[in-house]
Design goal:
By secondary structure, the chain is of the alpha+beta class. The protein is built from two helices and four strands; from the N terminus they run αββαββ. It has a domain of 50 residues.
Length: 73
């Protein structure tokens, strides 16, 4: 598993998705959205179409306090 070496601020990237509370699949590096949808399945399917094998799946919400993302294999 690759670990992120730098801190990322996803506020700008996730803001459009957070307004609709969509699920997003991030690239394994965590720096861009590779899929989105109303539920986790939709986000993962979109990422798989782009051949992303291990996206980071999370729901885009306005506040992430106490939230830890999980890598999906």
């Amino acid at each position: 598993m690759k670990y992120m070496k730098k801190k990322l601020n996803l506020t700008k990237i996730l803001l459009p998705y957070a307004k609709k509370k969509l699920w997003v699949a991030l690239s394994p590096e965590g720096d861009k959205v590779v899929g989105s949808g109303k539920d986790p399945k939709e986000a993962l399917e979109e990422a798989k179409k782009k051949r992303i094998s291990s996206p980071i799946l999370l729901q885009a919400v306005p506040d992430y306090s106490g939230f830890v993302p999980k890598t999906v294999k």
